[in-house]
Write a structure and sequence with these properties.
With about 290 residues, this protein is α+β, with helices and mostly antiparallel strands. Helix content is about 40%, strand content about 20%. It folds into three domains: about 60 residues, no CATH class; about 45 residues; about 130 residues, Ribonuclease H-like superfamily/Ribonuclease H (Nucleotidyltransferase, domain 5). It has a five-stranded mixed beta sheet with strand order 7-6-5-8-9, with helices on both faces. Helix 1 crosses helix 2 and helix 8 crosses helix 9.
Length: about 290
């Protein structure tokens, strides 16, 4: 509220961070020169700055999640603050009450922030000691499931969540089409550098020798024998992250459908990866919103 008291303050912040450091001069996309820009008052209350050389209009919200939104920038910034300041997330119903908007608007805002700003798109792979594990999302069926009764295939389907964590570092989490070896190995190859050490459990999907050939070492902990830590060999870090996700979803959202699950995983992974950053998460997410195009 102190830094962004109204829509004008939010718009000026976007203008300065996207185009003009001093707030007056910027490179014109049309004429290609460093020009002075002015913001003129119009009857339509346009959120634009105009090039004094060629008259080209620059909209600071263009190419961002704020583009073509009738919701005020002040409320958008407040929603981002709430998402970054809450440890276990915020539901759309809670955001509806905080902002005074409709549930549909609150849900759209949260969905865009999760999938557009919190998605992992840096492309930087994991390295070092990397723990890998998978888990199912969803609880046990409330009633006995039989093939003839509720329909075995659909009633028992639960998404497979696959996580990869650097010890002391970042996490990458995604949804797999299945828990088979090819899907598991392809995901590991995509997100983990070859000069890494892989730690997994004794799930049969990791039985192939390809992990040992591709990476420096591949260690497996024998969960079936109730062994969970054997010196440096364990998967407790990634299991701990799954615990954070499941506790957060159970406590804040109660349940998440498979269709929208990846967005919620993005949110928890984004928070986890920035737990040691000295900058505030609010500042980091705003800067990402400013460079998004």
């Amino acid at each position: 509220m102190r830094e962004f008291p109204d829509d004008d303050a939010c718009l000026v912040w976007l203008w300065r961070n996207r185009y003009s450091d001093d707030g007056e001069h910027a490179e014109c996309p049309k004429c290609g020169h460093w020009r002075a820009f002015k913001r003129y008052e119009t009857a339509q209350r346009r959120q634009t700055w105009t090039c004094t050389g060629c008259g080209y209009h620059v909209q600071p919200t263009a190419g961002t999640i704020f583009e073509k939104s009738s919701t005020s920038l002040h409320l958008w910034f407040y929603a981002i603050h709430l998402m970054t300041s809450t440890r276990c997330g915020i539901s759309a119903k809670q955001l509806e009450r905080e902002l005074g908007v409709t549930y549909k608007t609150a849900w759209r805002m949260l969905n865009l922030i999760r999938n557009e700003l919190m998605a992992d798109e840096d492309g930087e792979k994991l390295s070092g000691d990397v723990e890998v594990d998978e888990t199912f999302h969803g609880g046990k069926p409330r009633a006995a499931v039989t093939r003839a009764g509720l329909g075995y295939k659909h009633a028992t389907y639960k998404p497979s969540v696959f996580g990869m964590v650097e010890r002391g570092g970042r996490v990458k989490v995604t949804i797999l089409p299945n828990r088979g070896g090819p899907a598991v190995h392809h995901t590991i190859y995509e997100h983990v550098l070859p000069e890494s050490i892989i730690f997994t459990d004794d799930w049969k999907g990791y039985d192939s020798q390809s992990l040992s050939r591709r990476y420096i070492r591949h260690y497996r902990i024998k969960h079936k024998e109730r062994v969970y830590v054997d010196g440096p060999v364990h998967t407790q870090t990634v299991v701990g992250f799954f615990g954070l996700v499941k506790s957060g979803i159970r406590g804040t959202y109660h349940d998440v459908s498979a269709k929208w699950l990846q967005g919620y995983l993005n949110e928890y992974a984004w928070h986890y990866n920035r737990r040691h950053d000295v900058r505030s998460m609010f500042e980091q997410l705003l800067l990402r919103a400013a460079v998004r195009s």
